[in-house]
Amino acid sequence: MRSVAKATLRRLSPAVICGIAAVLVSPAGAQTAAPQILAQQTAAFECKAPPEFVRLDQPLRHTARRLAADEPLTIVAIGSSSTWGAGASSPAASYPSRLAAELGKRLPRDDVTVLNRGVNGEEVEQMLARFPADVIAPHPDLVLWQVGTNAVLRDHQVEVDAAMLRDGIKKIKDAGADAVLMDMQFAPRVLAKSETPDMEDQIARAAKEDSIDLFNRFAVMRQWHDVQHMPFEAFVAPDGLHMNDWGYGCVAKLLAGAITEAATRPVASAATHTVH
What we know:
Elements: H1 14-25, H2 27-42, H3 51-54, H4 61-68, E1 73-79, H5 81-84, H6 95-106, E2 112-118, H7 124-136, E3 142-146, H8 149-153, H9 158-174, E4 178-182, H10 188-191, H11 196-209, E5 213-215, H12 217-226, H13 232-235, H14 245-264, H15 267-274
Parallel strand pairs: 1-2, 1-3, 3-4, 4-5
């Protein structure tokens, strides 16, 4: 397979706590000590989430056809800094890069390319302006669109973003690609904003009404924190906003599993699952 990505323990030991403190006060130390510290923090935790949080309800029909025909598969990951990989130790630790590696394990005979089209600080309007060159031009089979966080952090009107989100979804569909929305990250700086629940509702509503998939990153990360009792430091970077290497890697692993399942399941079973 060819893949391209352009793109705690609840009670920590004194040694780990001291190491974290050293990283926070020393930029140079952060580059060398952080991976070892995070490895100790997350050693006791398993990358998992309830099936209902990671299952893509809509079958990825176009992706499925490409895989069934043994044709190359192109995935575009569009978004802002948590797509670009802010908070990761290197570009190789961003979620699109990790997704490429995870898909390589699940689809070893297939030619899959994952393109990282994340740009730090962007909101939906700026992303839409890049759609012609960064999303449509590569002729993607699947588009993963991460949205919402920057508008909430800047206290912008959620309704405006929702309208533009619908426009972007239409553009993806018109290009003949499958679409998956990725919502916000469950992180301290996001949780501190009053607009967060409204934005989460708007993203979920857009996915449902336009019959596309939603990868519920917010619910997955909340489950890590509230149910698995992982401290934020185990999966969120020191800035309290972006994910760290473990967080990106786990999201990529869960997303790769969801994509593979949705693209290989019999369509009839998907229809049965969604009837209530």
